[in-house]
Specification:
Order of helices and strands: EEEHEH
Structural class: alpha+beta
Distance between the termini: 8 Å
Shape: elongated
Strand content: 5-15%
Number of strands: 4
Helix content: 25-40%
Strand order of the largest sheet: 1-2
Length: 56
């Protein structure tokens, strides 16, 4: 996970979700977006860094 230069967005790197059934459950997702799979632990670690003021 990476903060953008202005800090308004977070870039997430992960494996693309390609399971058709799982994608079908995301019917409200805009066509220009995609879904990536991110380990839960990575999200928790990033949230802790944000709380501590050291995300980047």
């Amino acid at each position: 996970m990476f903060d953008t230069d202005d800090g308004s967005l977070v870039a997430v790197q992960g494996a693309q979700l390609v399971d058709a059934d799982a994608l079908a459950q995301l019917s409200k997702m805009p066509a220009h977006e995609t879904v990536v799979l991110v380990p839960r632990e990575l999200l928790l670690e990033y949230a802790k860094k944000v709380q501590d003021g050291v995300a980047g």
